[in-house]
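On to my pick:
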Amino acid sequence: MEFQITIAGEAGQGIARSADLVSRDFVSRGMYVFNYRDYGSLIKGGENFNILRISTKKIHSNNWKNDYLVAFGRFSDHHLQKMNKDGISIGTLSKIKNKVDAYAIARELKAPPIVINSVLLGALYKSMNQPLKGLLKQMEVFGKKAKINQKAAQLGYDRYQGDTKHIIVPKQKNKKYFVSGSEAVAYGAVAAGIDLYLAYPMTPATPILHILANLKGHNISVVQLDNEIGVANGALGASYSGATTMVGTSGGGFALMGEALSLQGMSEVPMVVYLAMRPGPASGIPTYSGQGDLKFVLNAGHGDFSKIVVAPGDPVEAFERTVEAVYLSNKYNALTIILSDKHLAESNYTLDNAPSFTVKPSRFLVKPNKKFKSYKITKDGVSPRAPAGSGLIRATSYEHDEFGYTTEDPKEINKMVEKRLVKAKTLEKAVSKLKPIKTYGRGHDLIVSWGSTKGAIIDTLKEVDAKFLQICYLKPFPSRKVKALLESARRVVVVENSATGQIADVIAENTGYIIDKKILKYDGRPFGHEELVKSLRRVLK
């Protein structure tokens, strides 16, 4: 059993909160819910909507056709055009078939106009023939305002006389988790033992800032600085002192961090960056999703230095890969970048189990001796790390010798360059042990992708006879494993939320394998399950 609800209206009408209430009710009853958020960069006005895809089976994406539409106010006609044949629309405007005078009920209750949300949610539950008890329970989150919203929902339910369609929700007792990608990254950062999170607000990375700032019971400092240059340099300074640090940003902010990223490459001070992509160039579409920053991220920073780039595809991976990113950064004095996007960051997924640890978090700090070498040459290229203040510890942006003294001597320069090259090989070995790729399905054709497109692709495998290769670590690139799968496939197609299919170029650079079949989407919206099925059937025909 599966159905889909769209809740639409203007920014400021509580659409996201209402969608969350409905979602959590169905999740608490054992259903799987995928909640997609669509909103413009406006505080009030415009049009916002959430799509709730609800099923008895695991789902990881949304569709674009709806069984129910609930409109809190003005909305685009395209929602009515995307209704399924027996779809039910509910709202306050005359163009809605099942018009509800929610404002009259709000006045009757002497409640503010925003309470119409609760009235219309009550009407929605009546149209689905669903018990209201669970929704009323979820409304307790409103605190002192809970009772008035509960009364409004009850009146909306009791007085609704429009179309109905019976939804059967089987009784299931198994506990489920309902989390967003942002929450998973934030919890992963906590589990990894970070001391400090630095950021300047930039959609869609901002939720991490709020989540960590509001966490209680964890000794984590959260600091908002005045720009991303300060954020990146502040993180390096804190890391030099021994703190485990993490920063968050999106495309434009990441661009400003470029010089500091290169400073990390030379200083080898651990640094973790969370980058939630949005479509560019420039400000682009600030509140929408895209994967167009891939090659920029892989090549960020001037000069030759190694880095790690990991791209989770769902909240479980977002948690696990964040822990791995912090672990790798601390252990190898490396720059690690967690690459996400708006779709993963701000969509909510239903999980059967809480994520687990793939590595054991550690700081990897040592006590220095009197002749401590901050850049000691070792077999694996990784120098021991001691916190500033524990001895004579140096970090520098200049080329240096083992003690950290600036040098322009050709022999010393060669030694340090070769040391960093050895570390790059060490990082390759370390990443190869962390499942840098994953495969799903059993078909002869191969779908290749990365990041948030995973959800829609996983859902299509039930209807498309193909295997899916998910590339999780994009740097160091798992060349041998990827090439072997590509060469064993009958046909290969790339799926990416970009205009050019950048992952195909990355694959060609690292394996020599050319992929010419691409399914691309670059309008700021993610792939819907049904539209991707049609595209794959056409391309793989």
